[in-house]
Amino acid sequence: MKKRNIILTIISMLILIVVLFFIDKNLDSYNTRILNLCAIYVILALSMNLVNGFTGLFSLGHAGFMAVGAYTTALLTMSPDMKAQNFFLAPIIKPLANLTLPFFPALIIAGLVSAFVGYLIATPVLRLKGDYLAIATLGFSEIIRVVFTNTQTLTNGALGLKGIPDTTNIWWTFGMAAVTVIIITSLINSSYGRALKAIREDEIAAESMGINLFKHKVLAFTIGAFFAGIGGGLLGNLLGTIDPLMFRFILTFNILLIIVLGGMGSITGSIIAAFIVTIAGEALRFLDETMNLGFITIQGIPGLRMVVFSALLMLVVIFFRHGLMGTKEFSFDKIINKFSRKPSEKGGDQ
Amino acid sequence: MSEVNTLLKIEDVKMQFGGVTAVKDFNLTLNKGEIVALIGPNGAGKTTVFNMVTGVYKPTEGKINFNNRDITGMRPDLITKTGIARTFQNIRLFKDLSVLDNVLIANHLNIKSNFMEAILRLPRYKREENEMMEKSLDLLKKVGLLDLKDDKAHSLPYGKQRRLEIARAMATNPEVLLLDEPAAGMNPRETEDLTDFIKQIREEFDLTIFMIEHHMQVVMGISHRIYVLDYGVTIAEGNPYDIQNNERVIQAYLGVNEDDA
């Protein structure tokens, strides 16, 4: 049984690679970018789901960690010339001025820096629970953004960074997304993952079963921040320019929308919802533009898309509290059982 | 009373919440292998005693010793590691997780691999995971829940949920098991099963049991010694026969008529 699943996983991976190869060769840059964003949102949604869905900590600090990741990757991958061009108000601090790293190490460092920031924030913040935790993490995320707006010699302040090398391509995004899925799934299905779920289910019971609540919450929060940093890094090097205003609360809200829609505590749900929300975000772009309904012409209302998403979120919360998948996961066993049940009634054993 | 077999010793413990004294001057010793019951009317402070022993509350005064080690005010998870496990008055299972997961989680406290080893499924973690799985399945078999191992905990019938909660506590390898009203809400038949079950696990795992219970049938049937609390004060202590005939206990439970007194 297990061997079959491994083979099926490898086959689907190969199919994915072929599809990606096809996309890379044939799709135009607009559609490729949407797919890149989808994969990045998969990473972000999974990292947020680990904290909010699996550990049950209502954290709204994701945009902050993404900012840390995006800035770290950008500053480590930009060429010295480009940095000099960007920092015309005040020169960039010395050690960073001439430092240029390849994309992969830069991305990993971005994740680690973000995880470190997450760890520092977690220590005081995780003494809070529920709504208070949400407010405190939201506050810290805004603090990161404000700090980045004011550290002229480190982040170029409100001017942001331009000319970041566009290293992010479909292989990076889907590759990192696959790695994230594998790592988070592995974590969730390990003893540590079970401990995190126990904390979500009942903190008091978890603690009296010998689980160190604080240590495990910090662990989830830090790993979440790590992947948020990676996601941010990929995003920065995909867009080519970043500035502090990008990392406002609305970005966290987008990811929250994905995990609520997909199901808090479902990896499969997060992946599906990341694609749905990102693609719908582009498909609904017409709502922001001038619409001609034949008898009436509606002036474009910028932000109408967000109204649709907000309404969708409300509907999900009111009528489908568990989202698309609840806490269920995709598995080859289930699919095969579903398809093999009917033939087996006829006596076939294959 | 020899020091050797005294497992748990509570000395002059007092618990105050603001101006309310929930428990006062409470003393208790628990010897290895005993079943000791703590009874008393509602609001007498029984669960408060449990919460102090398990570290949920830090006593205002007094000392709690376990295996000659001071555990007063220690964190609950650390106290569990020293060998005291508990169940709850209102069942606190991990409702959305499977029966097997509930028991596996209680094994987590002994894990030596760190989270990186767990993510990468390195040999040491794999070995530990296999051990946990084997132990949990074995435990579920012993408590008769093996065929329900993949069911969600909340889908079990009430009596089985109680049983699972005890099994989960057992999975932490305790020396002392604290049962908070294990027979609450059970019918006579289930109560009888539970009594047998408690006896059975005590023999099988060489346990010492400290329980809070209202069902006199259970209390009188299996406990060696009984403590009676009323308004935070110990009003009686002794074997079931003495307690049943103790004037103050009867008064505390049935009330006393001022005219007759």
What would your notes on this structure say?
The complex is a heterodimer of chains A (350) and B (261). By secondary structure, chain A is mainly alpha-helical. Chain A has one domain (8-24, 34-289, 299-338). Helices cover 71% and strands 1% of the residues of chain A. Chain A contains 16 helices and 2 strands. The radius of gyration of chain A is 22 Å and the shape is globular. Mean pLDDT of chain A is 89; it is low at 344-350. Chain B has 261 residues and is of the alpha/beta class. Chain B has a single domain (6-98, 158-254), classed as P-loop containing nucleotide triphosphate hydrolases (Rossmann fold), CATH 3.40.50.300. Helix content of chain B is 38%, strand content 24%. Chain B has a 6-stranded mixed β-sheet, sandwiched between helices. A 4-stranded antiparallel β-sheet of chain B has the order 2-1-4-5, covered by helices on one side. In chain B, strand 7, helix 7 (188-205) and strand 8 (208-212) form a beta-alpha-beta unit. In chain B, helix 3 packs parallel to helix 6. Chain B starts with 5 loop residues before the first strand and ends in a 7-residue tail after the last helix. The model of chain B has no long low-confidence stretch (mean pLDDT 90). Chains A and B meet through helix 9, helix 10, helix 11 and helix 12 of A and helix 2, helix 3, helix 4 and helix 5 of B.
